[in-house]
Design goal:
This protein is of the alpha+beta class. The protein has 13 helices and 24 strands. It has two domains: about 230 residues, BirA Bifunctional Protein, domain 2 (2-Layer Sandwich); about 110 residues, Anticodon-binding domain (Rossmann fold, 3-Layer(aba) Sandwich). Strand 15 and strand 16 form a beta hairpin. The longest helix has 20 residues. Bound molecules: glycyl-adenosine-5'-phosphate. Glycyl-adenosine-5'-phosphate binds next to strand 11, strand 14, strand 17 and helix 9. Belongs to the class-II aminoacyl-tRNA synthetase family.
């Protein structure tokens, strides 16, 4: 399949089946704004939940917070973002379109002319005003990253958890950047979801922890998201191209249909941020009494890029059949229940009972699809296309023998499973021994 086709197919599938819709569509849309639909929000939430479980819930050294989107402007002045968080911008002298020079290929994408102004820096922070006064004293910024809240809240977390180095502070949530050239569907937008943590360490241990988180990030992408290793790369970001706070950065890159580009990042932020925010060292060694500024290794994950990569990587075609081979635990629907025939009340009632059984105590951690339209083959195709790992059909044998047909999305193999064993069967298949 041509790679540009793949992107078109994903965007179209997302719209048609309810993963991602164009934002504000009935008003003609708002460029580069996207809404997650019923299936997209399940996929996105599954990624976020899995991440939280892995990096916060199952560890005793990382603590979660949920900080405010709007913070004091002083935070962004101290962090260097007001001054440094900028991208180069050029303007086309012909049509006055504005672009990031590194994201265009020579000529103006609007009018095709190659006549640009010199690059100047454009700050990416989104500005707004608090309260009824619309002057600079009320000016604030929507957060451009979550990290600053983790630095600002450092003493509060330290005090309430009594944590000792090394330890981390984690958060998930929206970040906002006034990107000059957004695009490629949900790859680069002006509001996006982040998951990141600041891992506080002693300076002499930064290399050890950098390597540790490097391996963890790789394992997250391949084991948890199920992304193929052959499409994944690491890039050592050279001097002069790193963010203003970073002494070393590795980007995890993916082979998107539009090229090899960043998926996630890992940065060694030194003690740059804590030093900017705190006049006195905010950490004291409890044994020696020594006060100092911890250093920081920061793994950061874009949620929307995770969704995009998972969809691209899972998309397969087999003749006219499209299968999203998502990891079962990421799939929006965990299973689908079908009565073989919609006009047989006994079958429908039994299928409803099974639907209730699978949704009541919610041990499968996700919704279950119900479909009684058309023939079974079409229903299978419809579920394959959205990645539902198991389809359960209730037929006449079910009424007599108390078992159902369970069909596996990837192998299309079918097996009979007793109704009373169904929930455990699916749980084991989807979540294994965890
Ligand atoms: N606190 C560090 C930080 O924010 P970043 O590399 O600027 O680092 C983190 O952004 C991640 O957020 C990126 O690796 C990428 O996954 C995602 N990201 C960045 N800008 C984005 C945008 N405009 N749209 C969607 N995702 C974006």
């Amino acid at each position: 399949m041509a790679t540009s086709d793949l992107m078109e197919k994903i965007v179209s599938l997302c719209k048609r089946r309810g993963f991602v819709f164009p934002g504000s569509e009935i008003y003609g849309g708002l460029a580069n704004s996207w809404d997650y639909g019923p299936l997209g929000v399940e996929l996105k939430n599954n990624i976020k939940r899995l991440w939280w479980e892995r990096f916060v819930g199952r560890r005793d050294d990382i603590f979660g917070i949920d900080p405010a989107v709007i913070m004091s402007s002083k935070v962004w002045e101290a962090s260097g973002h007001v001054k440094e968080f900028a991208d180069p911008l050029v303007e086309c002298k012909q049509c006055h379109g504005r672009f990031r020079p590194d994201l265009i290929e020579g000529v103006c994408p609007n009018c095709g002319v190659n006549d640009f102004t010199f690059a100047k820096n454009f700050n990416l922070l989104f500005r707004t005003h608090i309260g009824p006064v619309d002057d600079s004293s009320a000016e604030v910024y929507l957060r451009g990253e979550l990290a600053q809240a983790m630095f600002v809240d450092f003493p509060n977390v330290l005090q309430t958890t009594r944590a000792k180095l090394p330890f981390g502070i984690a958060a998930q949530g929206k970040a906002f950047r006034n990107e000059i050239t957004p695009g490629n569907f949900i790859f680069r937008t002006r509001e996006f979801d982040l998951m990141e943590f600041e891992y506080f360490i002693r300076e002499d241990e930064w290399e050890k922890w950098f390597e540790y988180w490097r391996k963890e990030m790789w394992s997250w992408i391949t084991d948890d998201l199920g992304v193929q290793e052959s499409r994944l790369h690491e890039l050592e970001v050279p001097d002069g191209e790193r963010a203003h706070y970073s002494k070393r950065t590795i980007d995890f890159e993916y082979d998107y249909p539009f090229g090899k580009k960043e998926l996630y990042g890992l940065a060694y932020r030194t003690d740059f941020d804590l030093k900017n925010h705190f006049k006195q060292p905010p950490y004291k060694d409890q044994e020696t009494g020594e006060a100092f500024y911890p250093h920081v290794v920061e793994p950061t994950w874009g949620v929307d890029r995770s969704v995009l990569v998972v969809l691209l990587d899972a998309y397969t075609e087999d003749g006219d059949r499209v299968v999203l081979k998502l990891k079962p635990r990421l799939a929006p629907y965990k299973a689908a229940v079908f009565p073989l025939l919609a006009n047989k009340p006994d079958l429908v009632a039994k299928a409803r009972e099974i639907y209730q059984l699978l949704t009541t105590n919610y041990s499968l951690h996700g919704p279950i699809a119900w479909d009684d339209r058309g023939n079974i083959g079409k229903r299978y195709y419809a579920q394959d296309e959205i990645g539902t790992p198991y389809c359960i059909t209730v037929d006449f044998d079910t009424l007599e023998k108390g078992d159902v047909t369970v069909r596996d999305r990837d192998t299309a193999k079918q097996e009979r499973v007793k109704i009373e064993e169904l929930k455990e069967f699916l749980q084991e298949k989807i979540y294994g021994s965890e």
